[in-house]
Amino acid sequence: MKYKRVREILTGLIPIAAFLLALLMGTMMIAILGINPWVAYQALYNGAFGSINAIADTIVKATPLLFVGLGICIAFRAGVLNIGGEGQLVVGALSATIICLTFPDLAGWILIIIALLVGLLSGAIWGGIAGFLKAYFNVNEILSTIMLNYIAVYGMNYLLRGPIMDPLQVKLGSFIPQTARLPQAVDLPRLIPTRLNLGIIIAIFFAILVYIFLWRTTIGFRIRMIGQNIPASRASGINVPKYMVLAFFLSGALVGLGGAIEVLGVHHRMFTDGSASGFTGSAGFNGIVAALFGQLHPLGTIPASLLLGALLTGANKMQRVVQIPSALIGALNGLIVLFVVGSEYLRRSQARRVELITEVGYNSKHKSKKEDE
């Protein structure tokens, strides 16, 4: 039992080791450019935690990562891959924006609740489409979610360049693809005099809720069982297609809610540069890394999101202080993704190996016992 506990702790440290290894590789790359790595990483730390504003920005950056990571946890636990975070963030934010611009005279708190619920529902529908195609037509979910990302982005580009473009931009002739500023009544409450808003509290609440759902409810158990063994799930009477669709529906709902919170709490308007990342900051993909770094556990995704948020926030400061090329920042982020994803594969392989050894040992013991009888 003691050996098993030590093994579990060591397995849990694999993602942290992968993260540190990525930073070590980044150190070598920075040194090759003739820049002092200590100064560079000191700037990164100061940019993420050096002041109240820096800490607030780190948490703000981590909030959408946490929502996406929670959605990924549900999908991956069901054995399906939700790569559609970018599109679901956009759809959730766009739906909330349209509601706020359409009904600006509603009381602020009522409009906030409606906008968040609409964002949640929109993301759920967007994710549910991929789940339905996977469950009933065996359409590869990676392909369908990526295609849905493109549909969401092109739909956003069309709307922001026409039907919901800021009337002021049209009047001035600048035609910047953005909406009007949302009514100030729908701004999410600030926790301190910074950009930090109520969104992080909502995100942590849902992280706890997802944990309870997956590990303390019958539906959550069935979703996890499907992810571990589909034939056994079918044999036990579980409606596999139904729960696959439900997993995608819930996954998309959380991501869509994250998009709505992003627009109500941070940006206060929708805008685009022609790609999803112009609005999302690639949170739809970075959230996958946060989920894997948190070992696909809702509570583990909280510190993982904060760590990645700190890296993204601090990287901007590091780029300004030591004049590191933006391409190197992208390469450093890519290394972290590569090593973290690789560590998840290593962790799963080790877990399967332990299960196999345990099963063989049990069978041998059972066989010996029968021979003795």
UniProtKB/TrEMBL annotation:
The chain crosses the membrane at residues 12-39, 59-80, 87-104, 110-133, 142-160, 196-215, 243-267, 324-346. Coiled coil: none annotated. One of its GO terms (cellular component) is plasma membrane. Its main location: membrane. Pfam families: BPD_transp_2. InterPro entries: ABC_transp_permease. It is a multi-pass membrane protein. One of its GO terms (molecular function) is transmembrane transporter activity. It comes from the Bacteria. It is found in: Cell membrane. Keywords: Cell membrane, Membrane, Transmembrane, Transmembrane helix. PANTHER family: ABC TRANSPORTER, PERMEASE PROTEIN (PTHR47089), GUANOSINE ABC TRANSPORTER PERMEASE PROTEIN NUPP (PTHR47089:SF1). This is ABC transporter permease.
